[in-house]
Amino acid sequence: GGRVPGTAMIALTFDCQCACACCSSANFRRRYGRKTMAFADAERRLKEVIALGVPRVHFTGGEASLFGRLPELVKLCADAGITVFVETNGLSVTPALVDALKAAGLTSLNVSLDSDVDAEHDALRKAPGCRAAAVKAMRLCAERGLPCMASAYATRSTIAAGALARLIRAARAEGAGAVRVLAPVASGGWAADLDRVELAPEDPDEVELAGPFFYPVLNRTAPVECALPDAYKVFILPDGALAPCEHLPYVFAGSAGAGLGETLDRMKTLPLFDERTACWPRNKKFRAAHFPADPGEITEI
Question: Which listed site, 75, 112, 234, 280, has its alpha carbon 20 to 30 Å from 25?
């Protein structure tokens, strides 16, 4: 009857070729720079995840594909029956990497896509050639039989202008098996700018209408009551430390040397999460009361 996290996120590095306006990792990148997790530390943490029975792992960052032994860690999780996702901007995705991830048992390569227009996508990511690389990655996956999903954000303007619908149609044409649509969150690049892009209450319904018939659009924009007080998620950082969520500016003090189970037990007792809400970083009242004054700061709890 014990409850375990439904998802473990692991950032092997916060190094990345992009500097995206939507990036939730900007705060953590400021703290960790280009530090890369030691393979032994990643293996140790993932074995704890496996032992706890966590059903899903996301390799994120930063850019997960910059970690040279990524397929080995994917295989470790997949062999234990875990659903495994790798998040990528596409810039480091090669035929050899796609083949290695497929052989390792990856569930899906999730390729970030911000626009159906090359110049617009590249400008948002501050990385020339980024959209072309993302499209190439999706096509490689389609050609070589690795499941692939495009990952996009919906904002008020992309919904109103029809840009989200165009992006979804383009992703389908370029080989993505599905599109995951996320909501803007007050973290990283949007920490001090959420009012400009956040969704209106009716916008999640508009996302449902943006996709073509008989094509999977995974709409993750509707607020749902967050189960962080039950430790439903954990974020593993490049030094082995643990955080409650990739979108919150907190790290558990002393967690780099603590066991995963021990830290999750601590999470369940945190006064910070006494009042439940749909999503802490999307809750203006919570941000005003608990977020650091410096939007780039990470606080130890």
Answer: 75
For residues 187 and 164, give the distance between their C-alpha atoms in angstroms, rounded to a whole number.
Answer: 21
Distance CA 212, CA 85 (A): 24
Q: Would you call 111 helix, strand, or coil by DSSP? A: strand
DSSP 11-45: ESB---S---TT-TTHHHHHHHTT-B--HHHHHHH
List the structure tokens of 119: 């110049």
Encoding tokens for residue 62?
């930063």
| Token duo for residue 191 | 């920490």
Contact call for residues 149 and 188 (beta carbons, < 8 A): no
pTM, entire model: 0.93
Q: How many angstroms separate the CA atoms of 87 and 227, rounded? A: 23
Going from the first residue of the chain to its last (301 residues), give the mean pLDDT of each consecutive group of 10, the final group possibly shorter: 80 92 82 94 96 95 94 98 97 97 98 95 93 97 97 90 94 95 80 77 87 90 86 93 92 94 90 85 86 82 91
